[in-house]
């Protein structure tokens, strides 16, 4: 399968004009697909952009390009679900999980203080655990984890084996987290959606895997969060290039 020609398909949608003209971000999506799947991938992303709970877009861009670089295959992270009944408990648990990922407590406090300032960033921010500063220099655009996918048959088989709902939201989140944690200098990821109807978030790391937290914000809240906690000695340009340009497909580990 990896010998076939692949294409990166990307969608972004906004309201009141494009993102560059100050439009409100509505939705984004990403697929890595062979030529035979392009039509379905474009239709799926079109539907996603037009049916998002953040609103109806008046600007949408869907583009695809051929992949010429070698595609890396990686395994999904182990998944654990943590049930909480309030956003406060969810965020408190996220702090504890970040400590287990060896993020200093004072840096966790600083990151949480800055979350409101990061809420309008369309992608992720790179947060330096040594200086307590954002180091990606991408402003509102942030870092977009791209050229990533999990082929449907393999994902559905994984979901069946793990008793997980086989929906596109979970697939996308797990794929992104796996690629992020593959980078040697990213210690952990903290994420929850800007979708007002989706309150589940997660903390992910190499040691702990993918830790789902069932409530990270209150329903109706359109603010999201995606922070990558990185070592201060990181080569920032190389890290961003990996996250945005390295083609990666997720493949479950075969049971023996």
UniProtKB/TrEMBL annotation:
Pathway assignment reads: Metabolic intermediate metabolism; pimeloyl-CoA biosynthesis; pimeloyl-CoA from pimelate: step 1/1
Q: Give the source species.
A: Bacillus nakamurai
- Enzyme class, UniProt record, top EC level: ligase
Q: Which cofactor does the UniProt annotation name? A: Mg(2+)
Q: Which GO terms describe its biological process?
A: biotin biosynthetic process
- This protein is called what? 6-carboxyhexanoate--CoA ligase
Q: Spell out the Pfam families in the cross-references.
A: BioW
Summarize subunit and interaction data from the UniProt record for this chain.
Answer: Homodimer.
Enzyme Commission (EC) number: 6.2.1.14
Keyword Protein transport belongs to the record:
no
Q: GO molecular function terms here?
A: 6-carboxyhexanoate-CoA ligase activity; ATP binding; magnesium ion binding
Which InterPro entries does this UniProt record tie to the protein? BioW
The organism's taxonomic lineage, starting at the top: Bacteria, Bacillati, Bacillota, Bacilli, Bacillales
Keywords on record: ATP-binding, Biotin biosynthesis, Ligase, Magnesium, Nucleotide-binding
Q: Family per UniProt?
A: Belongs to the BioW family.
Catalysed reactions, semicolon-separated? heptanedioate + ATP + CoA = 6-carboxyhexanoyl-CoA + AMP + diphosphate
**What is this protein's function per UniProt?**
Catalyzes the transformation of pimelate into pimeloyl-CoA with concomitant hydrolysis of ATP to AMP.
């Amino acid at each position: 399968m990896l010998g076939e020609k692949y294409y990166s398909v990307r969608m972004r949608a906004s309201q009141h004009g494009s993102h560059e003209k100050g439009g409100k971000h509505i939705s984004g999506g990403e697929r890595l697909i062979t030529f035979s799947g392009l039509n379905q991938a474009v239709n799926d992303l079109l539907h996603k952009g037009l049916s998002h709970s953040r609103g109806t877009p008046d600007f949408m861009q869907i583009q695809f390009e051929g992949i010429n670089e070698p595609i890396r295959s990686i395994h999904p992270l182990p998944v654990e679900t943590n049930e909480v009944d309030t956003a406060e408990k969810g965020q408190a648990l996220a702090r504890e999980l970040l400590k287990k990922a060896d993020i200093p407590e004072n840096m966790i406090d600083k990151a949480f203080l800055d979350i409101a300032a990061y809420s309008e960033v369309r992608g992720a921010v790179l947060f330096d655990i040594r200086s307590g500063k954002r180091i990606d220099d991408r402003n509102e655009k942030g870092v977009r984890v791209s050229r990533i996918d999990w082929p449907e048959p393999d994902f559905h088989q994984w979901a069946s084996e793990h008793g997980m709902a086989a929906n596109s939201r979970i697939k996308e989140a797990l794929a992104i987290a796996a690629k992020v944690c593959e980078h040697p200098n990213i210690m952990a990821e903290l994420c929850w959606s800007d979708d007002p109807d989706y309150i589940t978030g997660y903390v992910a790391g190499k040691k702990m895997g993918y830790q789902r937290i069932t409530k990270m914000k209150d329903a109706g809240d359109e603010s999201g969060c995606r922070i990558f906690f990185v070592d201060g000695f990181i080569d920032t340009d190389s890290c961003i290039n990996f996250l945005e340009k390295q083609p990666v497909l997720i493949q479950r580990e075969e049971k023996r």
